[in-house]
Design goal:
Helix content: 25-40%
Radius of gyration: 14 Å
Largest sheet: 2 strands, parallel
Distance between the termini: 18 Å
Strand content: under 5%
Strand order of the largest sheet: 1-2
Order of helices and strands: HEHEH
Number of helices: 3
C-alpha cells in the first residue's frame, strides 16, 4: 500500500457489512476532536457510518475514551456492555 491519505482496502466493505448486521453497533473512537473527525472521514465519505462515538474533547488521554464510549453505548441502548465485548479496529 502506498503512502499518503486514503482508505485501506476492505474498510468500506467491512463498514457496510457491519451496518447490515444488527448484532453490531458502529461507533468512532478517536483522539481527534469530533469536528476534525467529521472533516477527515467526510472527505472519504465514511462519516455517515458513525452515528456516535468518543472524541478528543471527551478525555485528556486517549486510553480514557473507551469508558466514555461504553457509557454512551449504554445511554443509547439501555444495555450494559463489557469491555471484552468491544472490538476496536
Amino acid at each position: 500500500i502506498g503512502g499518503g491519505p486514503g482508505v485501506l482496502p476492505g474498510v468500506r466493505e467491512l463498514l457496510s457489512r457491519l451496518a447490515d448486521d444488527s448484532a453490531y453497533h458502529r461507533a468512532l473512537l478517536t483522539g481527534n476532536f469530533s469536528q476534525s473527525a467529521q472533516i477527515k472521514l467526510g472527505f472519504f465519505d465514511l462519516w455517515h457510518h458513525f452515528a456516535w462515538g468518543a472524541y478528543g474533547e471527551d478525555a485528556v488521554e486517549r486510553n480514557d475514551l473507551l469508558p466514555v464510549a461504553l457509557a454512551r453505548y449504554t445511554e443509547r441502548t439501555g444495555l450494559p456492555i463489557a469491555p471484552r465485548d468491544v472490538v476496536i479496529i
